[in-house]
Amino acid sequence: MSDDTRTLLLVGGIDAHLRHVKEQGVRVVFLQHPDKITPYQTATADVLLMIDYTDYDVVLPFAETARALYGFDVVLSLTEGGLTPAARLNDHFGFGDGQRGEVSRRMRDKALMRAHLAERGHPGVEHARVTDRASLDAFGARAGYPFIVKPTGTTAGFGLIRAEGPDDLDRVWRRIGELLGRRTDRGSTLFRVDGFLMEEYIDGPEFSVEAFGFAGRHVVVAITEKLVDERHFAELGHAVPARLAPDTHRLIADAVTDFLTVMGVTDGPSHTEIRLGGRGPLVIESHNRLGGGQIIELVEAALGINMAAYAAAWPLGNVAPLTEPPRPVGGACTRFVLSDPGTVTAVEGVDEVRARPDVLALQLNARPGDTIRPLRDNWDRPGFVAVRAEDTDTAVELCERLTRQTIRIEVNGTAETAGVPGSPAPAEVRDGAAAAPDPAGPQRPVAA
């Protein structure tokens, strides 16, 4: 690299994040948690500082020293735990409008998000913080049942609890006590459960909206169709682009761009989860980062846009802003491979599926002797298959066939297909409301 090569400070992330940043032709000072470092990162980062990047008081002196030594003029994070530290560093060094830290903090904290929306009269849901056992009773009497209890600062459905009725609140309170003050025990272990929020239950089918902000102008890149098990809200699948009538697509897109503007998000990727029910589109939660669950890979396959590359290039001024949403070039789908809980005795069909040219990715973390836990959240899913096809209908049909019929997991000596017996089949959706489950086929489009 020449002496005039720009330097970027990257806070946390996976190998792909570092790769996308290095592809921008910059020198990278990489702050990575000691528990997350990989051989690729050790070999690729120009400067590697192994610290707990979630602790801003620890990060700040290291960042100041790194700035003095290497002169970075951009701070970036593409991972959940690094978003707020990176935003605060941008504020500290004067990179931006000085509001990034506060915006990131209220995007990550679900209670702050709800309070911010309520203060500005934005359409929202009934909500309250859990303060004691009596607060559960009071909220149930006010908001009705079922209602949702969730940690204010974790991800991927960790710790999500559905309160079914007054008689269920003792169980809910016990579960809160089990989780409060502890770090997440799977997936990313960097988050601590430090509070809970209660929210009224939102009906209707669920979508996520993948958007990108360009100096305050938000472009909806894709709307993702989601399949969720209502018993625990673990995500069972995604499809891109969502099969929506034009008016419904516009309604959801407008709701999300309005939400992001009210929240103060101006630049970079966002991933917003939304439900379309009787009161129209309502935001469940949102993140100022890329979506997980292979959504970004689906977006690239179906729409030709690599949002991770955009996220790395935009802060450096290396890419022009999108002027309009991309047009679909196909369809793509992920379905998560599931099984009854128990001890795995055999797995079949993986090599057959992996060899298919229309399979984008396959991951299965279930081998003979492994224990599969009951499905409670996204971390309990043992694997996934992602495919591409000429349209969304074809992609969904293919993906469901591969995960429900071709891949087979034997648990405790009993062969089970990769679906969970008793789990809901994808719902048929019409006019923004979920109809009865359709056991015969994949999720249908939303009609006008």
What does this structure look like?
With 448 residues, the chain is an alpha+beta fold. 31% of the residues lie in helices and 28% in strands. The protein contains 13 helices and 22 strands. The chain has an eight-stranded antiparallel beta sheet with strand order 13-12-9-10-11-14-18-16, sandwiched between helices. It has a four-stranded parallel beta sheet with strand order 3-2-1-4, with helices on both faces. Helix 4 packs antiparallel against helix 5 (100-108) and helix 5 crosses helix 6 (110-119). It starts with 6 loop residues before the first strand and ends in an 11-residue tail after the last strand.
Mean pLDDT: 85
CATH topology of the largest domain: D-amino Acid Aminotransferase, Chain A, domain 1
- Taken together, the total number of domains comes to 3
The shape, in one word, is: globular
Q: Catalogue the unreliable spans.
A: 414-448
Instruction: Give a quick account of the main beta sheet: strands, pairing sense, barrel closure.
Output: 8 strands, antiparallel
Q: Could you give the order of strands across the largest sheet?
A: 13-12-9-10-11-14-18-16
The CATH homologous superfamily of the largest domain is called ATP-grasp fold, B domain
CATH class of the largest domain: Alpha Beta
Which structural class should the secondary elements be placed in? alpha+beta
Continuous helix count: 13
Total beta strand runs: 22
As a percent range, the share of helical residues equals 25-40%
What topology does this entry show?
Layout: E1 7-11, H1 15-22, E2 27-32, H2 39-44, E3 47-50, H3 56-70, E4 74-76, H4 80-92, H5 100-108, H6 110-119, E5 127-129, H7 133-143, E6 147-151, E7 161-163, H8 169-179, E8 196-200, E9 206-214, E10 217-228, E11 235-240, H9 246-263, E12 268-277, E13 280-287, H10 295-303, H11 307-313, E14 331-337, E15 342-348, H12 350-354, E16 359-364, E17 371-372, E18 383-389, H13 392-406, E19 408-411, E20 414-417, E21 427-430, E22 433-437
Parallel strand pairs: 1-2, 1-4, 2-3
Antiparallel strand pairs: 5-8, 6-7, 6-8, 9-10, 9-12, 10-11, 11-14, 12-13, 14-18, 15-17, 15-19, 16-18, 19-20, 21-22
